[in-house]
Amino acid sequence: MLIKPKSGAPPVQLRFGACKFRHEFGGPAIHEGAIPFPNSVAMHRMLTLDLADEAVPIYAENCQLSFLPLYYPLRFGFGGGEAQYRIVSEHRIEVLHIGANSHDEESYPHMDMFPRRPFQLQAIPYKHFRALLMSEQGRSFTLSTEDRELLRELDAGRLSFLGDGLLTLGGDTAWQCKNQTCPWSDQYVSLHIFARIAGSPYAGLEIFGQHGSDVQIYFGLCQMCGTIVTFNRCT
Ligand SMILES: [Zn+2]
Fold this sequence. Notes:
This protein is mainly β. The chain has one domain (2-234). It contains 2 helices and 15 strands. β7 (82-89) and β8 form a beta hairpin. α1 crosses α2. The longest helix has 12 residues, at 126-137. The radius of gyration is 17 Å and the shape is globular. Zinc ion binds next to loops.
């Protein structure tokens, strides 16, 4: 199943609350293959994106897929290192790589799954996104009063968003695709980042525990084969 980015898709933010589409944050792991090793625990289902919503910056080419699941290996490698998986079908994923040999014995950080929460995708206005980029990429500048107000309106500390070709903070994104059938599997290539989830996406939920609110989870694609790559970065 080939998953591809929609070129030029504008950035959209998660707004928790009812939505006509069936986007969901959290919930139990429901895909076959979400448990990467025998007798292991499941990866965390972070987001489930309803592909009927045109705001989703991803599509499935030449195949029928209604929902795109974004899983993260939170219980593997002390808070999750990296994982790569491919979408096999509506109900099955195949883990191609995970940055740990087994799951962590200690319950890290606190829950086996996150409570289900619906959300909608809302466009991020140009000037708000510009203020966000300035705050993250232009740190040698002092932010203007207007930009600080825009970031407050955006609730930037809790912002999770999707988009076409996002930038990461704190590290490059050259990865080796672990899909053995991918023509790029032996090469380091730039990932196409399409989603970023805040360490504390809403009040009361700290994905990485009390001191992890500056950690963010990213999702990207190998543009050749559609393998999904997930990892975290600290701001
Ligand atoms: Zn690939």
